[in-house]
């Protein structure tokens, strides 16, 4: 669903762009909310979240995985709400429950605020569209805290808060991929 490579580009896109999908190049792709709905509407899917990043000023690569069962994306009238049954850590260095608190959340963009918080817009705060839960502190412990930029102008390196830690790390060369795997019948 999201795929990053080398340096970031802006995911601060309009609602229509997120609904229809967009592609800057073969590495920077969002397949579209309507496509996600069509893929998952009849048969629940497992979604595998895989992320690799290289820490700034280091030769160390890190990889993380997480899996969700019975993953579905609702239709336009639900604002493409996501639902899933369970989280399964895939590796000892798991991402953790990156969608924690987002089950049942609607998708939000800067021009379509569906996060449930009337006092702020999580999509504006994180400069990108996602399934935000504004009543859960914009769910900054989610996967969005790795990839979105808390300002409008991020360069090839951004400072990110690592889940569960009070200090900051710097990353460059981030790769993240979400893949759908058909649920076993």
UniProtKB/TrEMBL annotation:
GO CC, any one term? extracellular space
Where's the Fibrinogen C-terminal domain? 1-138
Check the record and name the SUPFAM superfamilies matching this protein: Fibrinogen C-terminal domain-like (SSF56496)
User: Which InterPro entries does the protein's record reference?
Assistant: Fibrinogen-like_C, Fibrinogen_a/b/g_C_1, Fibrinogen_a/b/g_C_dom, Fibrinogen_C-term_domain
- Protein name as annotated: Fibrinogen C-terminal domain-containing protein
């Amino acid at each position: 669903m999201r795929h990053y490579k080398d340096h970031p580009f802006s995911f601060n896109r309009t609602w229509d762009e997120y609904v229809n999908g967009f592609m800057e190049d073969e590495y920077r792709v969002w397949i579209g909310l309507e496509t996600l709905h069509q893929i998952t509407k009849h048969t629940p899917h497992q979604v595998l979240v895989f992320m690799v990043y290289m820490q700034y000023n280091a030769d160390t690569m890190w990889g993380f995985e997480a899996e969700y069962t019975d993953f579905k994306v609702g239709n336009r009238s639900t604002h493409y709400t996501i639902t899933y049954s369970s989280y399964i850590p895939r590796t000892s260095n798991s991402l953790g429950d990156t969608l924690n608190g987002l089950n049942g959340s609607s998708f939000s963009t800067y021009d379509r605020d569906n996060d449930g918080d009337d006092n702020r817009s999580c999509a504006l705060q994180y400069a990108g569209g996602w399934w935000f839960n504004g009543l859960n502190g914009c769910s900054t412990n989610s996967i969005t805290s790795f990839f979105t930029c808390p300002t409008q102008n991020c360069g090839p390196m951004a400072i990110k808060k690592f889940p569960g830690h009070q200090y900051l790390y710097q990353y460059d060369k981030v790769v993240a991929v979400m893949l759908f795997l058909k649920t076993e019948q």
